[in-house]
Design a protein that fits this description.
Order of helices and strands: EEEEEEEE
Strand content: 35-45%
Radius of gyration: 14 Å
Distance between the termini: 53 Å
Shape: globular
Structural class: mainly beta
Biased composition (Basic and acidic residues): 97-107
Keywords: Repeat, WD repeat
Number of domains: 1
Region (Disordered): 91-114
Number of strands: 8
InterPro entries: WD40/YVTN_repeat-like_dom_sf, WD40_repeat_dom_sf, WD_repeat_RBAP46/RBAP48/MSI1
């Protein structure tokens, strides 16, 4: 028996991190080189949202974590050493989708002690 990977999650771009949402048992995210993809585990043929990293460089996102307190807040650590925090625009309902024309909001950038 041959098992084929799900076409939605199996992609050519490398995935550096994956984490379940603390507030939504059906939601998880994958961190890729230049974006975070948010998925609904009940339907993984297509991500429900993509959070793009807009920093003008080809920067690599190595780690991403959900807020343990807020359903739509994600922090990501990039190769440039900056920590970025986004508020996603997925619905507050489990399995919600980003509405047409909505953008994710970059809330905070922390440069550490550089």
């Amino acid at each position: 028996m041959t098992v084929k990977p799900n076409a939605g999650i199996y992609r050519r771009d490398p995935m550096f991190d994956c984490e379940w949402n603390y507030q939504d048992e059906h939601s998880f995210m994958t961190a890729h080189a230049e974006m975070i993809r948010i998925w609904d585990a009940r339907n993984t043929t297509k991500s429900v949202e993509q959070v793009e990293i807009h920093n003008g460089l080809h920067n690599i996102l190595y780690r991403a974590r959900w807020s343990p307190h807020h359903r739509n807040v994600i922090a990501g650590l990039c190769a440039d050493g900056l920590l970025r925090v986004w508020c996603t625009n997925t619905s507050s309902k489990p399995g919600g989708h980003q509405k047409e024309g909505e953008k994710d909001e970059l809330l905070f950038i922390h440069s550490g002690h550089q």
